[in-house]
Write a structure and sequence with these properties.
Number of strands: 2
Number of helices: 6
Order of helices and strands: HHHHHEEH
CATH class: Mainly Alpha
Structural class: mainly alpha
Distance between the termini: 29 Å
Number of domains: 1
């Protein structure tokens, strides 16, 4: 097992800054890239991450620690961000950074020792899950969406790179 709470926090704490560095001030052409119908662009991914901070990771962790396996924790609406009010990407990045900072404070308050991470809860679809698995999924979720954003941005220039496409693995998935 590779999980370590401090290593998890090291990634989780960097995601807002990474997104801000990558996306702040970019023209809409970059922010609006997606992989086709039904996929998300960078701006929508940031909205999704905001919803996760509000209703997924910490609320579910608190639920596991409070309720155990007595009842399933609420389902997460992965598409709620698509009906959220319109805000600029800059404002979303700021909001995400604020929410993530609060989430990490709450994580440290909830998990004051590693034993808490072995507590189990009931996922609405998966059944029995550990708090450690939830926090691990949170880290990988961040990395997945960072990868998604970079991949969709690279695809914007797929036809523009000409014959170099054969050497650019990100364009050949």
């Amino acid at each position: 097992m590779n999980f370590n709470i401090e290593e998890a926090v090291a990634i989780l704490s960097r995601t807002p800054q990474t997104l801000a560095s990558l996306l702040s001030g970019l023209p809409e052409g970059w922010l609006g890239c997606n992989e086709g119908e039904g996929t998300w662009d960078a701006d929508e991914v940031v909205g999704h991450l905001i919803e996760g901070e509000k209703t997924n990771w910490i609320p579910r962790l608190a639920f596991i620690l409070r309720e155990g396996e007595s009842k399933p924790f609420p389902a997460f609406d992965r598409y709620a961000h698509l009906s959220a009010g319109s805000r600029t990407t800059e404002r979303k990045l700021e909001e995400f950074a604020e929410l993530r900072a609060r989430s990490l404070e709450r994580l440290r308050a909830l998990v004051d020792n590693e034993e808490w991470l072995e507590k189990t809860g009931a996922h609405p679809a998966f059944g029995k899950v550990k708090a450690r698995e939830l926090v691990s999924a949170w880290v990988v979720h961040d990395l997945t969406h960072l990868s998604q954003i970079v991949r969709t941005m690279a695809l914007r220039y797929k036809t523009d790179v000409g014959p170099w496409v054969q050497y650019l693995g990100i364009l050949n998935r």
